[in-house]
Amino acid sequence: MTDAGFSGEVASERAWRLIRADILRGALTPGQKLRLEGLRESYGVGVGTLRESLSRLITERLVVAEGQRGFEVAPFSAKELRELAQLRLLLEGHALEHALRAGDVEWEARVVAAHHKLSQMEDRLHAGDGKALEPWRRFDSEFHRTLISACGSRALMAAHGTVFDRYLRYQNLALGFRGDIAVREHRALRDAAIRRDAAAAREILSAHILGGVEHALAGGTL
């Protein structure tokens, strides 16, 4: 298959989006070689389009170029996870403070709704329903993004989104569901947000993120 029928821009955007999603969810694993012929068959686009998409993923630090040897998925490391966690905490904590000051009743409703969906998946995971894992990951991301959505800064949201997505790759492959601890932290974050307690929200967020990192490192995947 090739990208015939798509404009160059549309084909490149589509390939970037699909490859990026496969990296973030772990279908393309850390260190995996990205051979152009295999990618061409998998994603239905030409080699030139693939090079454009992979170059874009290099700037996002999700892919690395191996000189004349081609491309591979960016590796994992405990050091990078810790760095991403600190960056996420810095950006998300700052955005959370602004959101708590600026959020209106509609924002409160979105926060409560996002937490409700997340808590439903947490209940299912507690009950041993493995099918809830993928929607739990999606709703976990949605909850955290909703919490800061009223911060009033597109630049801050974009910067957070870049770091958060790279952090998600670790979450999808190494962090997993932490059971009652995560459930309590999510509930406490929701409650602190609704009562506009920025100090408590930042403290809970810090414990939540750093606790997730330690959980991942203890698992031995990294």
UniProtKB/TrEMBL annotation:
Does Magnesium count among this protein's keywords? no
> Per the record's keyword annotation, is Transcription included, yes or no?
yes
Instruction: List the Pfam families hit by this protein, alphabetically.
Output: FCD (PF07729), GntR (PF00392)
Q: Which branch of life, at top level?
A: Bacteria
What the entry lists under InterPro entries is as follows: GntR_C, TF_FadR/GntR_C, Tscrpt_reg_HTH_GntR, WH-like_DNA-bd_sf, WH_DNA-bd_sf
As given in the record, the signal peptide range reads none
Q: Which UniProt keywords apply?
A: DNA-binding, Transcription, Transcription regulation
Q: Which GO terms describe its molecular function?
A: DNA binding; DNA-binding transcription factor activity
Where do the HTH gntR-type domain residues begin and end? Answer: 9-76
Q: What is this protein called?
A: FCD domain-containing protein
